[in-house]
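Please check what follows.
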Amino acid sequence: MHTQTLFELSQEAERLLQLALQNLDSLKSIPVAMLDNTTAAITGETNNVLPLHFSARSLETQQAMLNNELRKITRLEMVLAIVGTMKAGKSTTINAIVGTEVLPNRNRPMTALPTLIRHTPGQKEPVLHFAHVSPIDALIKQLQQKLSNYDRGKLTRRLEIDKDMNTLLGRIEQGEAFEKHYLGAQPIFQCLKSLNDLVRLSRALRVDFPFSDYAAIEHIPVIEVEFVHLAGLNAHPGQLTLLDTPGPNEAGQPHLQRMLSEQLARASAVLAVMDYTQLKSVSDEEVRQAISAVGKSVPLFALVNKFDQKDRNSDDEEQVRAMISGTLMKGHISPGQIFPVSSMWAYLANRARSEITSRGVLPDPREQRWVQDFAEAALGRRWRTADLADADHIRHAADLLWEDSLFEQPIRKLIYAAYANASLYALRSASHKLLNYANNTREYLDFRYQGLTVAFDELQRNIARLEEDMILLQGRQERARDEVDHEVSQALAAADRFISLQQTQLQQAIGAIFDAENLLELAGVRPESGPTAAPERLVLEDEGQAQVVLNKVSAACEMVMLDAQNKISRELALRFDLLESTLARALNEAMRPIETRIKEELSHAGFRARISFPAFQASQLNFNTRGLFNDAIAREHRPTGVASGTSSVREALSRWLNNPGWGWEDYVMTRTHYVIDVAQLYARFMEHVTQFCEQIRKALSAQVDVSVTAGMATFFAEFSLCLASLQESLRDSLAVRQQNEHATRALGQLLQQGISTATWIQEDTRLLRDDIQTLFAAEQL
């Protein structure tokens, strides 16, 4: 990479960012109506993106975004945002990437405030810098005053008081302020724990936590430490920094969703940490929606954590990549940017290797729990303390555990590349943000300038027509609902027929297993010699033989159920992916006449309006049948010599039927012979299959109803906001036209100047982006 070329590109990016900020300042003098209240009334929250109509909120958001990009360009910093739900293993993943423990793990949300973790060569021991600590100190004074007259018993009922919370309460009572610097893992852990507990305590005491004071990325805490995997590598221009973001609705704070969206929009790239065991859960869906919203301008990557919990019947790496890329993320991420891993195994392997390198031996497992976790993962469940004394053996076991974690691939393909190309990532991020800004700004200013040239009465007519269009929208909304209900009804009816067919085939397959001749074959006996067999009973003389038969029946039924699971999962996912596309098309077609009418009316008046349909979001239509099968059959294996009353097969099938102790003594009886009552056992299986398929039908119907209702509400709210935005812009123009001619002419000149500046920024940024892409391509050769 040519240092001079990078320097010139960064200088150009800095110039364009400064020009955009100056242009944005000039726009603040343009008279605008306050659309924020309209937005909040429609969507329930403040808009975070730049709409066609500039609101005061959107101007502030754009200014913060541009300043953030300017800061990253100055440092040539690549910010990789890490996002995931509480249980996905986000902190463990960050520790695995860094190669040492820099974030604490607790069984509760641990990211109330975003935190930066910056690779700093030579900084072996982590150090936390928290320069902007004054809002927290002010909060502590508020809480101190509140607690002085607060009943501790009432607080205990509203809040879990553990050791960490007691420590924090003591600090508050003493008025102890937070430090601006913390050196070492334990002081950092205590600081971050206290910050998160402050959020919980503030909620319990109904005191506002100062989240708004940490909206700017330069105000949040920063941990500086050398990333183990990057130590000793050649120096590169630029910096690599991880951004630990709060998950959506962590700690019961819904506004954190907005904070998450803002932080992701300012990142250079996003790494989503997904839970392999909960890929289609509601919480993971919230994360997917957040990262999909920024997917066009920010590169996306995904780590599928807890892949160590995969079993022989689970999806393999390629299946997981294909499912996430195509089904869950709707093509926003390519399969090559998805990495199934075990973050816990990677973290444990890293920590064990670090301890062996620095101390020559692992700590006492009785004092440090992670050593026990490492030993069980690397050495097996039967490990002994004596096994930990052999340093060479432990080092080899840690290397194998690292290999099994599959973490080497994302480290090499993502972290190494991000470090080597940090400056290019920073430049590319700035170019994308600048292009978005210039495009939106030019379109808005052009629309406002047209409003100065349109006749006064024409402006009034268009405002009135938009009122009519918003009324017409209500009627179209009812018609669209009817069409959507029809499509949903047809899809559910087709799904019901499919499930009925699967139920019939499942019953037939199980019926074949319970066929008397098949049972005799499983028992290894012939009808003409040996034990007798009636159509409804199988009589055997040996208890071990009876147990073998039941084991074989259990295994055969398990295979039938797993095959049905895979088939139902695949088919329903395809069916409801198609339904989502059909519903989006139906909604767009229903709204098309309004869009056409508005564009024709505005075009006739001299306006060029931008109207785009919102996306229909109903990703939960991808029904997760796999979860319903998780406990279908208990996979327990015990020695075959277990007494008949505690047979593992009996327990397994009892749990499979969700009816423990339902009377296996009626099926295998220890007398002169051992009798399996085939008819009654078979009847139980048939009853369970029927109930199970009915459960799928009910869950499917309820889930589709909730998803479609929410998706439609969002669609129409966003479309209504688009119309309201157009109307407000026309009213702004009308208000200006009612002023004197001098004011109108002055505003026209200001708008023309803004349009010219935005055009220059757009053209120069496009050239900058092309140069950056050329360098990226050269680096990948």
